[in-house]
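User: I'm curious whether this sequence folds into something compact or stays loose and floppy. Could you predict its structure so I can see for myself?
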Amino acid sequence: MEIPQSKIVKVKIFDIEYTLKVEDEELAYKIAEYVDKVMRELHDKLPDQSVLTIAILAALNIAEELFYERRNRGYIENEIEDLLRGLSSKVDMMLNL
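Assistant: Here's the prediction. I'll summarize afterward.
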């Protein structure tokens, strides 16, 4: 198995450039673009807030999205498991006829 190579990339978030060491360059750019978008949207709504406040609010919003996605994934996985159990029972019943 090949070990992924780290790359150095420069991204710009809210007009500040950051140098990152990443394994997936394309993903790093997409994430930076998303964080920048969230911060700009918050800044448009709250123009008098500091950059630090905007960054913390952006982090909280993104973390909330992550938690919702994780919860929804768990719900969907449970639904699939229930369906598979039901199908398995029906197959067992058919085989026992």
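Summary: The longest strand covers residues 7-13. The chain has one domain: 7-95.
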